[in-house]
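To whoever picks this up:

The parser on our side crashed when reading a file containing two proteins. I've narrowed it down to the boundary between the first structure block and the second sequence. Both blocks are reproduced below exactly, byte for byte. First block:
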Amino acid sequence: MNLNYVHYNFNNERVSSELDYLLSNTIVPTLIAYVCWIIRTANNHGLRRLYFVSRDGQILYKIAKIISEYITTPELHYLYGSRRAWYIPSLQSMPVDQALRSLIGTGKTVHEALILAGLTISEIDLFINKGKSKESDSRISNDLINNLLSNTHFCSVLSKHISESAESAKKYLKQNNLYKTKKWSLVDSGWFLNCQTYLYNILSSTGWKGRVTGFYLGLGGCVPSHKVSGKAYIFFDDRKHSLPLQKYHLLVEHVLLPADHSSVIGYVTTKGIAKPVFHTKNIDPDSAAYANHLHSLALQATRESAESGLLFDKIEAYQNLALTNLTRFLKRPSPSETMALAYLPVQFSHTSTAQCYITTLVTPLNMQTVQKILTQLLRFHKESIRIPWPEGSASILPQPFRYMTLKILSLLRFLQCHITLLFPLAKKHNSNNELNS
């Protein structure tokens, strides 16, 4: 099957009908059910304000705004932020040596780590490369770290960049009233609670005594204790559905939660007002077209469901059906569902300092690639296989390979949920690298 890259054409009747059927019957109901669950849980816990974190939270915020026209909800706010935007400011309270070692743990090279901290190329050349630009990809070594820490000028420059980043972030958070009350919560896609933890570190560094809570679609297998930052409310139960949702994070972020703007990588203060800084000015045209199309369908469906009373009278049944359909779609997609999304661009990193790797959601497979995918899922294969959605790619294999591959993938997903002792290294790896995912 030929999957050469083509642009989405929503005027194509076949593509449009297949995509709309998938969105209307699986994707949109999941989003609506998630938002209804958030609002119901927030009201039950007396939360006064919900902050929908930008990008992943954009469509959720729009759905919540429509629901708020029909029932009482907490105040709804759209908060520009991200793991990367809050990570550097969260380092301000650390000694410079801890901050540097934490930074280096997020990048493949010292160069990338210091770019992440806001250092300029000339500053990096001064401290690391000593004018030799060809050494800009210096690998991490204890000698290099110790040399940097023994350089008082470097420590001063690094502290200055972290402090400037933190001050702009605090100003932006203050502008959005996060310091005024403790009864608020984040809304995001989830995974490893990095946003929640970084935000708590920023707020608590100023004397704020609250806890940051969050609503999430799902979590990864290795997350910090809620006793540190605050409670996490989880919508999707991995073990109940025998499906580790975090393993599908690329599909969730691009198919369920696309946005019409790029990620926020920090803040800048101009004339006393802090504003978000975006990774890129514009996003991929096909991604934007898909996002706008999904948002339109979701908002229309939300209003129709709210006016009919479905979201309030039969919400439990609605939620259960939505999650059942989502689970089936992720584990056993039909060829037509796969092809409806096959050409959607997938970006492996929205905020990485390195060049982003972009592919399509569905990748043609051969038996050698299938073997690599399966061994990587078992962590026997160290090579990175960039297949965003293995089940989707497997669903367009010819029979009997399609049936066999999907069955094996389903078993491996089950093991990832229920026999966690088999995957301790994978958990640690995923948690440590979530910043650049």
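<<boundary where parser fails>>
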Amino acid sequence: MEEISNVVQRVFGNLVFRSWPLRHRILSYEEDKDRIKRFRRIMKKAFLGSVLISLIGGLLLSYWEYKYHCVNSELWMVPVGLILFFTPVIVWSSVAVSDMISTPEVNVSSQPKNAGLRSGERS
């Protein structure tokens, strides 16, 4: 769980702009810290939810194996159990892979002063 938390923090923890299309406003340290804490809480809940869904899928497959496999009935339980079991794994894997291959963030201080302004606006 620690590794997933680190990956998520690397992906979303360095977001420093709010209301991007209107104005670029750099968040204060306290606002950024609170935002990261809220995001970590949400991600922990999402991770626990995906573990619970995967556990339900595994239990459904185990129940089918124990109760119905010998007579080959209630076959609907197999694909439903497989979907519930593997979907969270696929989602978290795709998030981790997209983080590994994503482009690095642009350093704002290296951009010209008027890079984000429309024509005619002044900073």
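After patching the parser it read the second block fine. Helices lie at 2-12, 29-67, 77-101. The chain has one domain: 2-101.
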